[in-house]
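To whoever picks this up:

The nightly regression suite flagged Alpha/beta hydrolase as changed. Nothing in the input moved, so I suspect the structure step. Input below, exactly as stored in the fixture:
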Amino acid sequence: MSSTELPETLAAAVPRVSAVRVADGERLRSVALPGLTLNVRSRPPTRPGVPRALYVHGLGGSSQNWSDLMPLLADVVDGEAVDLPGFGDSPPPEDRNYSITAHARAVVRLLDAGGHGAVHLFGNSMGGAVATRVAAARPDLVRTLTLVSPALPEIRVQRSAVPTALLALPGVATLFGRMTREWSAEQRTRGVMALCYGDPSRVSEEGLRHAVEEMERRQGLPYFWEAMTRSARGIVDAYTLGGQQGLWRQAERVLAPTLLVYGGRDQLVSYRMARKASAAFRDSRLLTLPDAGHVAMMEYPEVVAEAVRSLIEESDRATDETNGRPGRNDGRDGGVFSGSGASRGDGDYEGDNDSGGS
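Regenerated output under the current build:
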């Protein structure tokens, strides 16, 4: 089977809906793997020989969530963003398994199939939990790890996050669908933006139009709510796992240099979790953006990109020194990046944290 063919059973299940949007400079391809097919969005690098990167979206998102950040890093990474099974333009998995472990398995299969070795791995929200699990289980596949508002277990969940968690309960999605049957795609889109953005007014008219078009496209997919509800259930299940499979325990096992990005206006992942996360990941840096919400890479992509560059440069220097070559010195200290003003969403970038525990 070629990488652009859908398995016959899945192809029959996918209805004809409008084409997914492709930004200027982006390419789409479909990768067939055992039991699933993944849509992959790529942006060719502007320099040859740069390392690979993979971007993983969150619950209800898609590879388009990374379209603002990818071009800003095109000179340092060869970036690809995946649509997780059942999201974006990827059909549902054959086994209908939407657990965090299943999503992580899909990412691992994609990376193994590519055969490019370790990548710079990015994850947002649910994708952050997925990326954490990948980095803990397969350190050979991860050069650095960047997590934007990762969905890691919280004891005191924010009230604004409760409705999302309720999607995991049987029948809630059906009830919500009936209650909002008369809502337009624009109303639904504005509701999502109000929840995910620190300041929804920052979204341009063009950005809103594209988001509404994507919402209309998704509403035409019969498996959209299945993917949402079962993935939400997967997040709740992952929160309750203990022992070696617990997400915080797995965070402690991550070896890759890690950048953690948290927004002060995040209504889904508490800002107070930033310190706990920076203590759990053994080689972490913390970027806090007081005016950002849940999707900082979409709200303040330039600030996030600058912090990612610092992470990659520092990682490269460490690799050079380990291999017996002089470390690269571009005049930066590599430890601290400070933003110029919280009112513009700029934040503080804090250096290595090797405390290893809270």
